[in-house]
Amino acid sequence: MAHNFQASRQWERINRYWVTEEVAADLTNFKSDRRNHKISLWDPGANGVRYLKTLGYTMAAELGPADWARLRRTENRDVGDPIAVRWNGESICLDYLQAILEVGFIEQAVDLEGARVLEIGAGYGRTCHTLLSNHDVASYCIVDLKTTIQLSQKYLRHVLDEARFAKIDFVTVDEVESVLDSRRFDLCVNIDSFAEMAPDTARGYLSLIDRLCGSFYVKNPVGKYWDRSLDGHLEGDEALEPAMETGLLRQVLDIHDSEAVRAAVPAFLAAYRPGGDWNRVADGWAAPWSFYWQAVYRNAARSERGPAGGVR
Question: Strands 84-87 and 90-93: what pairing?
Fold first, then answer.
Protein backbone atom coordinates (compact mmCIF):
# COMPACT_ATOMS: atom_id res chain seq x y z
CA MET A 1 0.00 0.00 0.00
CA ALA A 2 1.42 3.37 -1.03
CA HIS A 3 1.62 6.12 1.56
CA ASN A 4 1.54 9.85 1.07
CA PHE A 5 4.56 11.39 2.78
CA GLN A 6 4.08 14.87 1.36
CA ALA A 7 3.89 18.09 3.34
CA SER A 8 0.48 19.17 4.56
CA ARG A 9 -1.09 22.35 3.20
CA GLN A 10 -0.13 24.05 6.47
CA TRP A 11 3.53 23.13 6.04
CA GLU A 12 3.53 23.98 2.36
CA ARG A 13 2.63 27.50 3.42
CA ILE A 14 5.27 27.55 6.18
CA ASN A 15 7.93 26.39 3.71
CA ARG A 16 6.86 29.00 1.21
CA TYR A 17 7.02 31.96 3.58
CA TRP A 18 9.22 31.12 6.57
CA VAL A 19 11.31 27.95 6.39
CA THR A 20 12.66 28.57 2.91
CA GLU A 21 15.74 27.18 1.19
CA GLU A 22 17.63 30.25 2.43
CA VAL A 23 16.77 29.60 6.10
CA ALA A 24 20.09 27.86 6.87
CA ALA A 25 22.24 30.45 5.14
CA ASP A 26 22.61 32.49 8.33
CA LEU A 27 21.89 31.01 11.77
CA THR A 28 22.32 34.32 13.56
CA ASN A 29 19.28 34.95 15.77
CA PHE A 30 17.24 32.21 14.09
CA LYS A 31 16.09 30.76 17.44
CA SER A 32 14.45 34.05 18.38
CA ASP A 33 12.89 34.98 15.04
CA ARG A 34 10.00 33.78 12.88
CA ARG A 35 11.90 30.79 11.49
CA ASN A 36 12.03 29.05 14.85
CA HIS A 37 8.61 30.36 15.82
CA LYS A 38 7.22 28.20 13.03
CA ILE A 39 9.30 25.14 13.92
CA SER A 40 9.66 24.94 17.71
CA LEU A 41 8.16 27.87 19.62
CA TRP A 42 5.04 29.99 19.52
CA ASP A 43 5.89 33.59 18.77
CA PRO A 44 5.71 35.34 22.16
CA GLY A 45 4.81 38.61 20.43
CA ALA A 46 1.63 37.11 19.00
CA ASN A 47 0.97 34.47 21.66
CA GLY A 48 1.18 36.37 24.94
CA VAL A 49 -2.14 35.04 26.26
CA ARG A 50 -1.14 31.48 25.33
CA TYR A 51 2.06 31.85 27.35
CA LEU A 52 0.23 33.52 30.25
CA LYS A 53 -2.22 30.64 30.41
CA THR A 54 0.63 28.14 30.16
CA LEU A 55 2.32 29.83 33.12
CA GLY A 56 -0.90 29.68 35.13
CA TYR A 57 -1.50 26.05 34.17
CA THR A 58 2.05 25.06 35.13
CA MET A 59 1.84 26.84 38.48
CA ALA A 60 -1.54 25.28 39.22
CA ALA A 61 -0.02 21.84 38.72
CA GLU A 62 2.49 22.55 41.50
CA LEU A 63 -0.01 23.65 44.16
CA GLY A 64 -0.38 21.57 47.29
CA PRO A 65 -3.53 20.61 49.24
CA ALA A 66 -3.27 23.64 51.54
CA ASP A 67 -3.03 25.96 48.52
CA TRP A 68 -6.15 24.46 46.95
CA ALA A 69 -7.98 24.76 50.26
CA ARG A 70 -7.16 28.48 50.40
CA LEU A 71 -8.30 28.91 46.83
CA ARG A 72 -11.64 27.14 47.36
CA ARG A 73 -12.37 29.27 50.41
CA THR A 74 -11.83 32.38 48.27
CA GLU A 75 -15.12 32.65 46.39
CA ASN A 76 -16.15 34.89 43.47
CA ARG A 77 -12.66 34.88 41.94
CA ASP A 78 -14.02 35.07 38.38
CA VAL A 79 -15.51 38.53 38.84
CA GLY A 80 -14.00 40.76 36.16
CA ASP A 81 -13.49 37.97 33.59
CA PRO A 82 -9.84 37.06 34.36
CA ILE A 83 -7.58 35.19 31.96
CA ALA A 84 -7.90 31.84 33.70
CA VAL A 85 -7.27 28.11 33.26
CA ARG A 86 -9.04 25.11 34.78
CA TRP A 87 -7.26 22.51 36.88
CA ASN A 88 -9.19 19.62 38.41
CA GLY A 89 -12.42 21.50 37.86
CA GLU A 90 -11.26 24.75 39.49
CA SER A 91 -10.95 28.02 37.60
CA ILE A 92 -7.74 29.83 38.54
CA CYS A 93 -5.93 32.92 37.23
CA LEU A 94 -2.41 34.15 37.85
CA ASP A 95 -3.56 36.90 40.23
CA TYR A 96 -5.15 34.46 42.66
CA LEU A 97 -2.36 31.93 42.21
CA GLN A 98 -0.07 34.60 43.60
CA ALA A 99 -2.53 35.62 46.31
CA ILE A 100 -2.86 32.13 47.77
CA LEU A 101 0.92 31.75 47.78
CA GLU A 102 1.32 35.16 49.45
CA VAL A 103 -1.16 34.31 52.19
CA GLY A 104 0.41 30.87 52.61
CA PHE A 105 3.83 32.45 53.09
CA ILE A 106 2.52 35.00 55.59
CA GLU A 107 0.56 32.52 57.71
CA GLN A 108 3.67 30.42 58.36
CA ALA A 109 5.27 33.34 60.21
CA VAL A 110 2.35 35.43 61.55
CA ASP A 111 -0.71 34.47 63.56
CA LEU A 112 -3.52 35.95 61.45
CA GLU A 113 -6.48 34.95 63.62
CA GLY A 114 -7.83 38.12 65.20
CA ALA A 115 -5.06 40.18 63.61
CA ARG A 116 -5.33 43.85 62.73
CA VAL A 117 -3.95 44.16 59.19
CA LEU A 118 -2.73 47.19 57.28
CA GLU A 119 -2.13 46.93 53.52
CA ILE A 120 -0.33 49.73 51.71
CA GLY A 121 -1.24 49.67 48.01
CA ALA A 122 -3.86 46.93 47.62
CA GLY A 123 -4.49 47.19 43.88
CA TYR A 124 -8.00 45.90 43.22
CA GLY A 125 -7.87 43.82 46.41
CA ARG A 126 -6.86 40.27 45.52
CA THR A 127 -4.71 39.71 48.63
CA CYS A 128 -7.28 41.32 50.93
CA HIS A 129 -9.98 39.11 49.40
CA THR A 130 -7.89 35.96 49.88
CA LEU A 131 -6.72 36.76 53.39
CA LEU A 132 -10.19 37.70 54.65
CA SER A 133 -11.62 34.53 53.07
CA ASN A 134 -9.13 32.35 54.92
CA HIS A 135 -8.63 34.03 58.30
CA ASP A 136 -10.89 35.64 60.87
CA VAL A 137 -9.00 38.92 61.17
CA ALA A 138 -10.22 41.67 63.47
CA SER A 139 -9.81 44.47 60.93
CA TYR A 140 -8.26 45.25 57.56
CA CYS A 141 -7.14 48.76 56.61
CA ILE A 142 -6.24 49.64 53.02
CA VAL A 143 -4.13 52.70 52.24
CA ASP A 144 -4.06 53.75 48.60
CA LEU A 145 -4.58 56.49 46.04
CA LYS A 146 -8.14 57.78 45.78
CA THR A 147 -8.98 56.29 42.38
CA THR A 148 -7.46 52.91 43.24
CA ILE A 149 -9.49 52.84 46.44
CA GLN A 150 -12.62 53.42 44.38
CA LEU A 151 -11.77 50.28 42.40
CA SER A 152 -10.83 48.07 45.38
CA GLN A 153 -13.83 49.24 47.37
CA LYS A 154 -16.24 48.32 44.59
CA TYR A 155 -14.50 45.01 43.85
CA LEU A 156 -14.27 43.88 47.48
CA ARG A 157 -17.88 44.83 48.15
CA HIS A 158 -18.81 42.60 45.20
CA VAL A 159 -16.73 39.52 46.11
CA LEU A 160 -16.97 39.49 49.92
CA ASP A 161 -19.97 38.87 52.10
CA GLU A 162 -21.29 41.73 54.21
CA ALA A 163 -19.63 40.66 57.46
CA ARG A 164 -16.15 40.43 55.93
CA PHE A 165 -16.49 43.64 53.94
CA ALA A 166 -17.49 45.47 57.12
CA LYS A 167 -14.03 44.73 58.56
CA ILE A 168 -12.33 46.86 55.89
CA ASP A 169 -11.71 50.56 56.11
CA PHE A 170 -10.19 52.60 53.30
CA VAL A 171 -7.72 55.43 53.89
CA THR A 172 -6.49 57.71 51.12
CA VAL A 173 -2.82 58.69 51.07
CA ASP A 174 -3.57 62.26 52.16
CA GLU A 175 -5.33 60.92 55.27
CA VAL A 176 -2.53 58.61 56.41
CA GLU A 177 -0.98 60.66 59.19
CA SER A 178 -4.23 62.01 60.63
CA VAL A 179 -6.11 58.69 60.56
CA LEU A 180 -3.44 56.09 61.29
CA ASP A 181 -1.15 57.70 63.84
CA SER A 182 -3.29 56.61 66.80
CA ARG A 183 -3.80 53.05 65.53
CA ARG A 184 -1.74 49.88 65.93
CA PHE A 185 -1.53 46.88 63.59
CA ASP A 186 -0.30 43.32 64.00
CA LEU A 187 0.71 43.06 60.34
CA CYS A 188 1.48 45.38 57.46
CA VAL A 189 1.43 44.07 53.88
CA ASN A 190 3.07 45.65 50.85
CA ILE A 191 3.04 43.89 47.50
CA ASP A 192 4.59 45.41 44.41
CA SER A 193 4.02 49.07 45.24
CA PHE A 194 7.00 50.35 47.25
CA ALA A 195 9.07 49.77 44.10
CA GLU A 196 6.78 52.18 42.22
CA MET A 197 6.93 55.01 44.76
CA ALA A 198 9.36 57.90 45.07
CA PRO A 199 12.17 56.75 47.41
CA ASP A 200 11.25 59.31 50.09
CA THR A 201 7.62 58.10 50.02
CA ALA A 202 8.65 54.46 50.46
CA ARG A 203 10.96 55.41 53.33
CA GLY A 204 8.12 57.38 54.90
CA TYR A 205 5.88 54.30 54.84
CA LEU A 206 8.65 52.16 56.35
CA SER A 207 8.92 54.69 59.17
CA LEU A 208 5.15 54.43 59.64
CA ILE A 209 5.40 50.63 59.77
CA ASP A 210 8.20 50.91 62.32
CA ARG A 211 5.96 53.02 64.58
CA LEU A 212 2.64 51.25 64.18
CA CYS A 213 3.12 47.57 63.29
CA GLY A 214 4.23 44.31 64.87
CA SER A 215 5.03 42.38 61.66
CA PHE A 216 5.67 43.29 58.04
CA TYR A 217 5.29 41.25 54.84
CA VAL A 218 6.88 42.68 51.71
CA LYS A 219 6.96 41.35 48.13
CA ASN A 220 8.72 43.54 45.57
CA PRO A 221 11.39 43.42 42.84
CA VAL A 222 15.06 43.24 43.83
CA GLY A 223 15.98 45.74 41.12
CA LYS A 224 15.18 47.23 37.73
CA TYR A 225 15.60 46.00 34.16
CA TRP A 226 16.19 47.77 30.87
CA ASP A 227 15.73 44.95 28.37
CA ARG A 228 13.82 45.97 25.27
CA SER A 229 13.32 42.34 24.22
CA LEU A 230 10.99 41.72 27.20
CA ASP A 231 8.30 44.26 26.39
CA GLY A 232 9.42 46.17 23.30
CA HIS A 233 9.45 49.41 25.35
CA LEU A 234 6.13 50.11 23.65
CA GLU A 235 5.39 53.19 25.73
CA GLY A 236 8.74 54.78 24.86
CA ASP A 237 11.61 56.05 26.95
CA GLU A 238 9.45 58.88 28.30
CA ALA A 239 7.46 56.26 30.23
CA LEU A 240 10.46 54.14 31.23
CA GLU A 241 12.68 56.89 32.61
CA PRO A 242 10.26 57.89 35.43
CA ALA A 243 9.89 54.19 36.33
CA MET A 244 13.66 53.92 36.75
CA GLU A 245 13.57 56.70 39.36
CA THR A 246 11.13 54.97 41.71
CA GLY A 247 11.68 52.58 44.59
CA LEU A 248 14.50 51.89 47.02
CA LEU A 249 16.33 49.44 44.72
CA ARG A 250 17.14 51.05 41.40
CA GLN A 251 20.11 49.01 40.21
CA VAL A 252 19.65 47.50 36.74
CA LEU A 253 20.23 43.75 36.49
CA ASP A 254 19.59 40.77 34.27
CA ILE A 255 16.33 39.68 35.85
CA HIS A 256 16.52 36.24 34.23
CA ASP A 257 19.93 35.41 35.68
CA SER A 258 19.47 33.58 38.98
CA GLU A 259 22.93 34.56 40.22
CA ALA A 260 22.30 38.24 39.49
CA VAL A 261 18.96 38.07 41.30
CA ARG A 262 20.44 36.25 44.29
CA ALA A 263 23.28 38.80 44.51
CA ALA A 264 20.66 41.56 44.84
CA VAL A 265 18.78 39.88 47.71
CA PRO A 266 20.92 41.20 50.61
CA ALA A 267 20.25 44.78 49.48
CA PHE A 268 16.52 43.96 49.27
CA LEU A 269 16.45 42.53 52.80
CA ALA A 270 18.34 45.53 54.18
CA ALA A 271 16.24 48.11 52.31
CA TYR A 272 12.90 46.77 53.53
CA ARG A 273 13.82 46.28 57.17
CA PRO A 274 11.65 48.95 58.80
CA GLY A 275 13.99 49.75 61.70
CA GLY A 276 16.60 48.61 64.18
CA ASP A 277 14.20 46.57 66.31
CA TRP A 278 13.05 44.43 63.38
CA ASN A 279 14.22 40.87 62.68
CA ARG A 280 13.72 38.96 59.45
CA VAL A 281 11.92 35.71 60.21
CA ALA A 282 11.32 34.40 56.67
CA ASP A 283 12.29 35.20 53.11
CA GLY A 284 12.36 33.55 49.70
CA TRP A 285 11.76 33.84 45.98
CA ALA A 286 8.28 35.09 45.10
CA ALA A 287 7.27 32.89 42.16
CA PRO A 288 6.60 33.18 39.32
CA TRP A 289 8.45 36.42 38.57
CA SER A 290 12.17 35.82 38.41
CA PHE A 291 13.25 39.03 40.15
CA TYR A 292 10.67 39.28 42.93
CA TRP A 293 11.52 38.45 46.53
CA GLN A 294 9.39 38.26 49.66
CA ALA A 295 10.15 38.55 53.34
CA VAL A 296 8.46 38.70 56.73
CA TYR A 297 9.96 40.89 59.46
CA ARG A 298 8.92 41.05 63.10
CA ASN A 299 9.36 43.91 65.53
CA ALA A 300 11.05 42.21 68.45
CA ALA A 301 10.29 45.10 70.80
CA ARG A 302 6.57 45.32 70.01
CA SER A 303 5.13 42.15 68.50
CA GLU A 304 3.29 39.86 70.89
CA ARG A 305 1.80 37.65 68.20
CA GLY A 306 3.94 34.58 67.59
CA PRO A 307 4.21 32.46 64.46
CA ALA A 308 1.28 30.27 63.55
CA GLY A 309 3.62 27.48 62.54
CA GLY A 310 7.19 26.87 61.47
CA VAL A 311 9.21 29.67 59.93
CA ARG A 312 10.96 28.93 56.69
Answer: antiparallel
